[in-house]
Task: structure prediction
Amino acid sequence: MPTEARSPRLAVLIDADNASAKIADGLFEEIARIGEASVRRIYGDFSSARSKGWADVLAKHAIIPQQQFAYTTGKNASDITLVIDAMDLLHSGHLDGFCLVSSDSDFTRLAARIREQGVDVFGFGEQKTPESFRQACRRFVYTENLLPGVASVQDAAPAKRPLQSPSAATPMLKKAIGQMDSEDGWVLLGTFGKQLANLFSDFDPRTYGFSKLSDLVRETAAFEIENPKGGAMRIRLQPAAPKKAKNKIG
Result:
């Protein structure tokens, strides 16, 4: 009897000083789409007001706290402990990927080192996260998109505005399709989505107010869409409007 393929085993390492406890539910729902959160650890000084919010959600998500007292001002023992644990877990060879939850650029080198080993890194942080860390990850998710009640431009009465307007996504969409080989310009939406992820690790339709890439593509009005019954959706750039001929005088 064939055995069922196991989901990728992931280590979830959370920097409590640079992540809000409000994202906990959305974070683990998002991670469940990637694989199995086999290791769940959080690093911080839970006696401080900044990290105290996590204490209420640790049991719910089976997160193991790694308490680090701030013995010296300016020294972040939590970051150092997280990095040491990450390298120990990496060299154990039991994991398929890492989820680093932080908006701190200090973890850029850690993410790059893990990927050098052929292991995937998924980053989770706020929009303010420096580009260096975002690009060091295979995929980066803005934690603002994981908060309860995230707005969608499709909602009748959205709770708040999307992080960016849909039109801000158009240059990225055009760049991705421009790099894809196609004789007639048509590409499958699924293939297009993979190319987007390869080019922009932090691309996410939710940032622009849509849960699906197809809905965002429609909203931009920059693409022709073909959606055959029983077939996969295809898209291509709208043809450029023909230039009007100038009237000759005399």
